[in-house]
User: Fold this.
Amino acid sequence: MLILILLHALAALTALALGRRLGPRVFLVAALAPLVSVGLLAGRAPGVLDGRPVDEALRWAPSLGLVAAFRLDGFALLVGGLVAGIGVLVMVYASAYFHRGPAVGRAAALLVAFAGAMLGIVLADDLLLIYVFWELTSITSYLLIGIEDQKGSARAAALHALLVTGGGGLAMLGGFVLLGQEAGTYRLSEILAAPPSGGLVGPALALILVGAFTKSAQFPFHGWLPGAMSAPTPISAYLHSATMVKAGVYLIARLAPAFAAAVAFWRPTVVLVGLATMLLGGWRALRETDLKLLLAYGTVSQLGFMTTLFGVGLPEWTFAGAAILLTHALFKAALFMVVGIVDHQAGTRDLRHLGVLWRALPMTAAVAVVAAASMAGLPLLATFPAKEFAFEAALHGGLGRLDPVLAVGLVGGSALTAAYAFRFAWGAFIGGRGAQPTTAKPPARALLGPALVLSALSIALGVAPVLADKVVAPAAQALHADASGLHLALWHGITSALVASAIAVGVGVVLFVRRYAVVRLQRRLQVLPPASAVYARAIERLLHGADLVTGFVQNGSLPIYLGVILLTAVMLPAAHLVAGGSLPQQWVVAETPMQALVTVLTIGAAIGTAVAARRFVAVLFLGGVGYGVAVLFVIQGAPDLALTQFLVETLALVIFVLVLRHLPERFGGSPSRRSHVLRLAVAGIVGVFVTAFALVAAAARTGESVSEEFLARSLPEAGGRNVVNVILVDFRAIDTLGEITVLGVAALGVAALVRTKVDDDT
Amino acid sequence: MTPERSLILHRAVEVVFPIALVFAVFLLFAGHNAPGGGFVGGLVAGAAFVLRYVDGGSTEVRRAARVHPETLVGTGMAMAAITGAVGWLGGGSFLESRKLSIDLPLLGTAKTTTSLPFDIGVMLVVVGLVVMILRTLGSESHK
Assistant:
């Protein structure tokens, strides 16, 4: 499974390199990665569907308990299949949608990188690994929303999405750590098999839910999703309807069966947030005239629907959720593609300028009507049996006071869904204002084909729900062991669920027919401020607060910075020293006369540094101190250390001189008497402490030294006689890797800062 | 860079610079068994570029190191990370090293370990860092 993710990374690099040469056809190259994934998942499918998950683990740093674990079970197969399958279709679609341009390679690379990250979330069986992929999807989403980086609005929308989902991701990381510590393992499958019940589980899940809600655009975090529609349509179709926004739902689906009953706040919170989102999104979708925004609010609403279904955490609810997840991806991706076709061929996607498109675009209209009808929950289409199942679960009851809320909320939300689905299909394709046919050129085959496939699937799964059942049932069972024996059916008989369906569609029709009255009502009912205004206000406050804090902490005085840093470094260990340190028993002043001589010279140089009046002289003295210490290393028989010290000291001297060019030759005029005394005091305290610490630390060893072991293992295990180097590149190589990473990143940051300064000056 | 550029210094640097670089590479390879290693090797190579800087300013450094220092840093980090991933091949863990020995015709057997590329990565990062500092902090326009 890791190989699949690496394949996506490779495809991304290839697409980036070939973008300029191939133009939009580069998407077809990128499509190979998800295509191979589909094949590989299909190959593994028979065993997985029979209930035998595939596990794969890669030893990362076993001594830290870090294992890159992957697991392909029924649910991962369903979601992963959707990610890869729709990925292929979207990339084919994109190859006809995009025009040749500099951003095409980047778009293809990011899209396929996103597909890899999304597969990673679904396949990962380790909380920390899920987090890594989760943030990768946030970052690729950010870059994809802002792909038209000349447009200020696109950049702002991208940042909005990143701040909300990234912030939620951080909360989720906190939750993951709490949950992992409480459970004693970060393996998701182990945590779910034996859910922990300690006191930290509640806060952990609350934090994880914040992450899931932000990612899946749940109220009150939903504002970023409509904004993200400024991305080109293939991106919206893939990330912001069919896959990425389902990551939060995915996580809720995984966790709910284990925690919904055990954690008191889970069920009411998730169900109410989900229902509120479902109703709010549907209500807003009724008002939008931009087809894409209409669908975006529809997506918000449907995500609320799925959150509710999965959030309950009972077998039949989970089953309904898995079914909706599948059918929603099919119709919503098709609808987005259709909007892209209309936009591409007719030049607008505004309902006020569109009408009777079926004359100009008959096939596109057919695809749109089928997908919209599936969204509305009409019989013989894929969503109908899934929705029936949801209503049945809702009418089944057993959740106490939540029962009526759920029943009314779900039927109401479905009615709104039906209403905006009718509005979508009628307003643009069948009728429309004035019934004036819009002219449009017929779309390319690669534009229409993918949407056609998806709508055909909507019909197939609607006519023969048993096909959907083949993947949905194992998915539900993977989440919930008790979900066996549940099945989708075309016709349940005349049940209360059927009545609920009929009510939902009926109310939807009424809302659609009376749509102008609904819009007027909406204008009058505008009580809540729009989410975007809330966001803008929050950002404004945040920046203001940051200004205040920065103004207080960063006051620009170097002596104060140094003083704070040094005193902080002294305080904590000093307390320890006073409390329990003991000085060494025997004192060795110097082992050889040479040592004594070098030490005296070094001390002299140190004093010279402190009293020098010119900066350059002080720097030279400081270098002298460093060289003196290096000589001590030589005397003590540590050539490696000495060599390094000499070189570092030399380079530091050069860098100092480079910086000195910008500073006055002499140190500033003498400070006031009081501040002089204060500086002396700080310097004295730090000096005394560091010396005391060095003495005590030398005497404080209680455990065995690791050097003996390293010395013994160096040659036989790592094949090196220089133990210092072996420690750096072998025994402690991960530390070194971390260090050079910090070094590299810091260097890039410094270089960028200095360069900005240069540009400002010239 | 400056009109009063010293000819003697210029000639001396011309001679010392390649020697210093070779010495840096020697330290890198010797490092596993004798004093040296990637970090020290990188510092020596960095010092060689400092000599070029003293001779002719950052333009001279630019001429000596034709690749971008960012590329050096990035390549070094990538090499170190990839070496780590190679440890996985054959079921080891990340960064697990293995001994290698290659029989070279005429020269005899060369022994090394898979941590050598890791050390080369460290060296590239350090060299890149020094060159980057010389090119930014030391640039003429920044006076």
